[in-house]
Amino acid sequence: MHWNSVSEFFAMGGYAFYVWGSFGLTAVVVVGEVLLLRAQRKTVLRNLRNELLAESNPT
Amino acid sequence: MNTRVIHWFKFASPQNFYVLAGRMWPWFATLAALLTAVGLWISFFVAPTDAQQGEGYRIIFVHVPTSQMSMFIYLVMAAWAGFGLAFNTRLSGMMASALAPTGALFAFLSLVTGALWGKPMWGAWWVWDARLTSELILLFLYLGFLALQASIDDPRRADKACAVLALVGVVNVPIIYFSVKWWNTLHQGASVSLTRSPTMASTMLWGMLIMVVACWMYAITIALLRVRNIILERERHTEWVKHALE
Questions:
Q1: Which of B103, B181, B190, B208 has the most CB atoms less than 10 A away?
Q2: How many Cβ atoms from other residues are within 10 Å of residue B185's Cβ?
Q3: If we measure between CA atoms, which residue out of B143, B149, B141 comes closest to residue B168?
Q4: Which residues pair with A41 in a beta bridge?
């Protein structure tokens, strides 16, 4: 461990914006893609169920 | 006769692959999470400070994995596309479409993390350097693939058109890879190569390699999840999907 304090860790030797910007943006993209896929799956399933319902109960 | 032969083509049917993908993705997701945790630990707490670049070099732990992933996903996507053109299998086009958005995101991350490294180290967010420019073209190829697919209503025709685009674009991948050798670029050469020993401390190298494998596991997880959505959507009028829902 080469960090003497928490604030030193977050300062990243003066490169805080660049280092945390890189890791932060990547984390946002990764989490966002996972959430988007979950929402997409829910939409697909809901549409499918609606189609099935419409077929079985013709009005 | 050997009865334990695996019938690979069985999984070429979307119905069987849907089930297989559903069983596989949790394993890849677990591996991705574990490897990311270990990789991040090494990136921030084990790998030493770089003599020249200080703490700023730690960007490579996310830049290198995303960059190699953007190129590798393109190759896999083009391979599926080529397979689809040659054998006319439905699943191939679905796999190619499942990979394209993730590849585009990795290309985007590669460019942005590269810019965030370039600003403090080179003094510029962007230069029209061979490596950077060819990576930007890779992002445009992914976006072209996605746009072309969105513009054709019939999914099977879209698959074929996109497959041709994906295969033509493959020429760009070796250009990106060798750009640092072929031209005088500002971008540094490969830190890791198969032909000579790496030019970095072994803990840095290990951190980077673990992050690379974590990205692979993530990309596989995402591709499996997305292809399941695509299969459900495209096969929605088949009996098996109706049964699967009940």
A1: B103
A2: 17
A3: B141
A4: none
- Give pLDDT, residue B194: 58
Confidence band, pLDDT 50/70/90 cuts, at residue B51: confident
Give the minimum alpha-carbon distance from B118 to chain A in angstroms, rounded to a whole number: 9
Chain A interface residues facing chain B, Cβ-Cβ under 8 Å?
Answer: 1-3, 9, 12-15, 17-19, 21-23, 25-26, 29-30, 33-34, 37, 40-41, 44-45, 47-49, 51-52
**pLDDT > 90? residue B106:** yes
Domain ranges of chain B: 40-47+56-187+204-232
* pTM for the structure as a whole: 0.91
Interface list for chain B against chain A, based on CB atoms closer than 8 Å: 44-45, 48-49, 54-56, 58-59, 62-63, 66, 101-102, 105, 108-109, 112-113, 116-117, 119-120, 218, 222, 225-226, 228-229, 232-233, 236, 241-242, 245
- pLDDT of B1 > 60? The answer is no
Specify the pLDDT at position B5: 63
Contact between A15 and B66 using a beta-carbon 8 Å cutoff? no
pLDDT-based confidence at B193, cuts 50/70/90? low
User: B226, A37: Cβ pair inside 8 Å?
Assistant: yes
Q: Residue ranges per domain, chain A? A: 6-56
